[in-house]
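Fold this: 2-amino-4-hydroxy-6-hydroxymethyldihydropteridine pyrophosphokinase
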Amino acid sequence: MKTVFIALGGNLGEVREHFIAARSDIDRLQNTSVSASSLLYRTPPVGPAGQPDYLNAVIRIQTDLDPLALLDALQQIENRYGRERLEHWGARTLDLDIIAIASDIITSERLVIPHPHMFDRQFVLQPLCDLAPQWQHPQLGESATHRLKQIIETGEAPLPEGEAW
């Protein structure tokens, strides 16, 4: 079993309910269990203008699924909750991104792990720090906490306080 971190995001429809249902769906995957959930954060959108704010969170799971099998399962869950891929970084009902699998490094056409943008996005780092503040990026050798602190020190406002979901 490997520890995997999955980022959840969404800004259309009943996002909180989609997160709760998706977390249950993930927990029911073969040889997979959700072991922790971060707080829930409301954040401004990244991407096309005019979108509503996002809700963001991270969950930690234990699984022995192959990374691509996990990716396929997560995309099926996204589709179940109305995910449409119409516009890059566009509004969405549910986004499930594998951000890290233990200390693995994967580079394939379909999957890059660690997620290539995770250390640039406070809306990923803050919820990750809720669960694993000392998680080390396997390529950068930097902890999630250290990187989050750097982002805030460069002038980006800290996220508003998170809430339980």
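The mean pLDDT is 93. The radius of gyration is 15 Å.
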